[in-house]
Amino acid sequence: MNIVETQNLTKFYDKNKAVDNINFFIKKGEIFGLLGPNGAGKTTTVSMLSCLIKPTSGDATICGFSILKDSLEVKKRIGVVPQEIALYGTLSARENLIFWGQMYGLYGKNLKRKVDEVLEIVSLKDRQNELIKKYSGGMKRRINIAVGLLASPELLILDEPTVGVDPQSRINILETLKNLNNNGLTILYTSHYMEEVEFLCHTIAIMDLGKIIALGSLNELRILVGEKDKIIFSTINDIKEDIKDRVSKIEEVDKVNIFNKSLEILTLKGRKILPEVTKILWDEGIRIKSVEIKEPDLETLFLSLTGKTLRD
């Protein structure tokens, strides 16, 4: 089942096309990542999906409801965590959550239960009575996420939720989102941080200049651009030339090099061929000292697809 489906979603600001005819879907229970530099169109995309701005053309459905025709139904089913901190500094974390919970129509015991629940999720129950203005940037971000969870959404939309936070807070936020997803929550996550999207996302859409230029799992994107794994076997004894011929005959192997006590292999499917290569070396009496697999990361893929680094 697809939670989100877009159909030729497009947005102009005057004559500038911020989002250019994009199409993608998000399956129930997955984390979907929108990766791209600042100005790629990520925030405009999630703003349209959140029913905050109207598309110039095209449409999208969330849980089967159109963002154009059924925006109230869409809003009931989503939680939104914007880039900007949407909190009141002179109120405590708990008071902020009570205020936003009432905006969502929660009252009495239900409101108290939900506030307690989301404070537990973001690990800030012990700091709930402190004023937000005394919180660190990372703690504010975590309460921002808690606000997005108050309405028990079917889809949580997060727009660059770790911008400006310290490394420890970033790890905490990412682990929190992983746990939420493990409990069944579908997540749309935008970022310009490669490592975040690699860590979190099942499916990745790479955006640049308003267009989706590639879409798929990390492995599918690697195959799409032809970026290969490099496997390096370091051995105790020398490797004979005839081993190169045997390894080269493995279907998924693209190139083999031998450097005395080192065997280097280029392939799109490094982990798949590992047992077969290991067996060949074992059969030939070659003792393996170590094995290293160097897999291309998203930065390599973005460079291959666009000809520039993500932060250009």
Topology at a glance:
Blueprint: E1 2-13, E2 16-22, E3 25-27, E4 31-35, H1 42-49, E5 57-62, E6 65-66, H2 71-76, E7 78-81, H3 93-103, H4 108-121, H5 137-149, E8 155-159, H6 167-182, E9 186-191, H7 194-200, E10 203-208, E11 211-216, H8 218-225, E12 229-235, H9 241-248, E13 253-258, E14 262-267, H10 270-283, E15 288-294, H11 298-306
Parallel strand pairs: 4-9, 4-10, 7-8, 8-9
Antiparallel strand pairs: 1-2, 1-3, 1-5, 5-6, 10-11, 12-14, 12-15, 13-14
Helix pairs in contact: 3-4, 4-5, 5-6, 8-11
Mean pLDDT: 90
The best one-word shape is elongated
> How many strands, what sense, and barrel or not for the largest sheet?
6 strands, mixed
- CATH class identity of the largest domain: Alpha Beta
Q: How would you briefly describe this protein structure?
A:
The protein has 312 residues and is of the alpha/beta class.
Offer a few descriptive terms.
single chain, 312 residues, alpha/beta, Rossmann fold, Alpha-Beta Plaits, 2 domains, 6-stranded mixed beta sheet, 37% helix, elongated
Could you describe the 3D structure shown?
With 312 residues, the chain is of the alpha/beta class. The chain folds into two domains: 2-223, Rossmann fold (3-Layer(aba) Sandwich); 228-295, 2-Layer Sandwich (Alpha-Beta Plaits). Helix content is 37%, strand content 28%. The protein contains eleven helices and 15 strands. It has helices spanning 42-49, 71-76, 93-103, 108-121, 137-149, 167-182, 194-200, 218-225, 241-248, 270-283, 298-306; strands at residues 2-13, 16-22, 25-27, 31-35, 57-62, 65-66, 78-81, 155-159, 186-191, 203-208, 211-216, 229-235, 253-258, 262-267, 288-294. The protein has a six-stranded mixed β-sheet with strand order 7-8-9-4-10-11, sandwiched between helices. Strands 1, 2, 3, 5 and 6 form a five-stranded antiparallel β-sheet that branches. A four-stranded antiparallel β-sheet has the order 13-14-12-15, covered by helices on one side. A hairpin with a 2-residue loop joins β10 and β11. α4 packs across α5 (137-149) and α8 crosses α11 (298-306). The longest helix has 16 residues, at 167-182. The model has no long low-confidence stretch (mean pLDDT 90).
